[in-house]
């Protein structure tokens, strides 16, 4: 055995699990968080790349167009080369590295090169797929044994190394990996070697992910059923009486947005609320912030207004962001909610109103229409002549409110309370999902989210990447921005709120 090279790097073979990114182990996350290079598979969920440091090198070693991007020997050489550079390398493999993952071959190459490695187990596809399909692999009243078998065994051999007699007559659950293309042959062999033709069979495709599909049949007809519906890899095949329990134990694919992958483009500080609601309904969510919220270049104008709050008749706050930055500045200046004692407060939308109430202020006006035109309509019913209005805003906010209030005779000050800027980059996991054409829907909650995405990706690339992806807009202003860029808006709620947007997605995909 070669001596380990003390000055070399290390390779962590990390099991990424069957697809659901939350199924990766804590140790797997720890390894990703210190990775300098991540070499990842086709079956490794792209969301897991977000755990790696921002400067980490990402190398795709999966399939392109159904063909392997790199052969196994090339992958082995790549791991050796990167480790010899002294890098911390994570080899992110779908499922478990040592269960039909060729992890043993990669470890052999590393050991032969005298390099250090560590194997981090993962949830293998058979375990994840059966659990998410509602099919227990073992059951006290049905079977006490289970066998994992490669569905591709014998592809280049005249004789099979599988003991089909024991596999077929044993009565236990049998799980075939990578067996869709050889499904008919494998099912026929089981029947020929004694397994009853009416034995239940389930195919589980893209297990534990938003794309999961389950097809149920028997040894006699599952191949025909798969052909009829065009069932494609990657999938595993579960054979056994336990499959019949799915009808009773099915849970994952009964939620309203199950099977849907949704990209959320809100700022990172805001994405959690929408992402959480979508996830609770079964969707897989990729956060792809196209906005980063930062302080204004100067606080001078806002500070002057805050110090003179008693001279204003109205303060108009049009978003939760405006509320947070406004009250943060009040606190910084040594003031509190009492500074607003002489002002009336207008909140645009119920979420903005809730945010204001959190600071001990009850809004005096909440327009029924949550966009700028609704604010103008409400104020048009009041005598605004000579009124003083403070309108803390984002740097790229529409000028409808201050412009129309001035026409009514009001004096309006609109200092910048925060800025919307581009993030440093778009998350690679979101781009990878778009490249794989695995995204079902993208959400836009402001004009800035869609405009920034177009600016960061380029309009032509954005339009190409979003072909076949349902576009969900929170309201008409955002929808107009989408259409101006050539996007077709598929989903728009009647009320311009996050809750209404989520409900609209449920209706659309129902």
Rg = 29 Å
Quick one: overall form?
A: elongated
Q: What's the overall average pLDDT, rounded?
A: 91
* N- to C-terminal distance: 59 Å
Helix content: 25-40%
Strands ordered across the widest β-sheet: 3-2-6-1-7
CATH class of the largest domain: Alpha Beta
3D architecture notes:
The protein has 510 residues and is an alpha/beta fold. The protein has four domains: 10-122, Tetrapyrrole methylase, N-terminal domain (Cobalt-precorrin-4 Transmethylase, domain 1); 127-253, Tetrapyrrole methylase, C-terminal domain (Methyltransferase, Cobalt-precorrin-4 Transmethylase, Domain 2), CATH 3.30.950.10; 261-291 and 422-509, Rossmann fold (3-Layer(aba) Sandwich); 296-419, Rossmann fold (3-Layer(aba) Sandwich), CATH 3.40.50.10090. Helix content is 34%, strand content 19%. The chain has 19 helices and 23 strands. It has a five-stranded parallel beta sheet, with helices on both faces. A five-stranded mixed beta sheet has the order 8-9-12-10-11, with helices on both faces. The protein is elongated and about 95 Å long. The N and C termini lie far apart (59 Å). The model has no long low-confidence stretch (mean pLDDT 91).
Give the SSE layout.
Elements: E1 10-15, H1 26-33, E2 37-40, E3 57-60, E4 63-64, E5 67-68, H2 72-84, E6 88-93, H3 103-112, E7 116-120, H4 125-133, E8 146-150, H5 164-169, E9 173-177, H6 183-192, E10 200-205, E11 213-218, H7 222-229, E12 235-239, H8 246-249, E13 261-264, H9 268-280, E14 284-287, E15 292-294, H10 300-307, E16 314-317, H11 320-332, E17 344-347, H12 350-357, H13 372-379, E18 388-390, E19 393-394, H14 400-407, E20 411-413, E21 416-421, H15 428-435, E22 441-444, H16 447-457, H17 459-465, E23 470-473, H18 476-484, H19 498-509
Parallel strand pairs: 1-6, 1-7, 2-3, 2-6, 8-9, 13-14, 13-22, 16-17, 16-18, 18-20, 19-21, 22-23
Antiparallel strand pairs: 4-5, 9-12, 10-11, 10-12, 15-21
């Amino acid at each position: 055995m070669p001596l380990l090279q003390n000055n070399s790097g290390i390779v962590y073979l990390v099991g990424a699990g069957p697809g659901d990114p939350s199924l990766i182990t804590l140790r797997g996350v720890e390894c990703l968080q210190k990775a300098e290079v991540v070499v990842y598979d086709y079956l490794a969920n792209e969301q897991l790349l977000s755990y790696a440091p921002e400067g980490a090198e990402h190398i795709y070693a999966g399939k392109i167009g159904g063909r392997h991007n790199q052969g196994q020997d090339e992958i082995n050489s790549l791991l050796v080369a990167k480790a010899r550079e002294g890098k911390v390398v994570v080899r992110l493999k779908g499922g478990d590295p040592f269960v039909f993952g060729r992890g043993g071959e990669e470890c052999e190459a590393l050991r032969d090169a005298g390099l250090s490695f560590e194997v981090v187990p993962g949830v293998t596809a058979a375990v994840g797929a059966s659990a998410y399909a509602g099919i227990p692999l073992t059951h006290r009243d049905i079977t006490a044994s289970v066998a994992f078998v490669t569905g591709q065994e014998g592809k280049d051999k005249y004789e099979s190394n599988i003991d089909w007699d024991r596999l077929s007559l044993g009565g236990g659950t049998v799980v075939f990996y990578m067996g869709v293309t050889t499904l008919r042959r494998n099912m026929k062999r089981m029947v020929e070697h004694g397994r009853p033709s009416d034995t239940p069979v389930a195919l589980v495709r893209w297990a534990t992910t938003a794309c999961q599909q389950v097809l149920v049949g028997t040894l006699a007809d599952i191949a025909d059923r798969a052909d009829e519906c065009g069932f494609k890899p990657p999938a595993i095949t579960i054979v056994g009486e336990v499959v019949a329990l799915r009808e009773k134990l099915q849970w994952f694919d009964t939620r309203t947005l199950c099977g849907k992958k949704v990209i959320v483009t809100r700022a990172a500080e805001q994405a959690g609320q929408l992402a959480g609601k979508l996830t609770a309904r079964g969707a897989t969510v990729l956060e792809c912030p196209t906005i980063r919220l930062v302080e204004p270049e100067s606080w001078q104008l806002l500070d002057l207004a805050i110090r003179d709050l008693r001279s204003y008749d109205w303060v108009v706050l049009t978003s939760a962001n405006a509320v947070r930055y406004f009250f943060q500045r009040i606190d910084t200046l040594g003031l509190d909610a009492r500074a607003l004692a002489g002002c009336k407060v207008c909140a645009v939308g119920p979420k903005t109103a809730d945010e204001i109430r959190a600071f001990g202020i009850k809004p005096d006006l909440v327009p029924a229409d949550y966009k700028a035109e609704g604010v103008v309509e409400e104020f048009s019913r009041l005598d605004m002549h000579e009124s003083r209005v403070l309108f803390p805003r984002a740097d790229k906010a529409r000028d409808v409110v201050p412009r129309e209030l001035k026409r009514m005779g009001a004096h309006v000050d609109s200092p910048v309370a925060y800025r919307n800027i581009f993030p440093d980059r778009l998350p690679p996991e979101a781009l990878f999902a778009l490249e794989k054409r695995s995204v079902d829907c993208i959400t836009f909650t402001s004009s800035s989210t869609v405009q920034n995405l177009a600016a960061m990706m380029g309009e032509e690339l954005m339009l190409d990447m979003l072909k076949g992806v349902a576009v969900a807009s929170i309201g008409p202003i955002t929808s107009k921005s989408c259409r101006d860029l050539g996007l077709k808006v598929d989903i728009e709620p009647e009320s311009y709120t996050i809750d209404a947007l989520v409900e609209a997605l449920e209706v659309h995909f129902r």
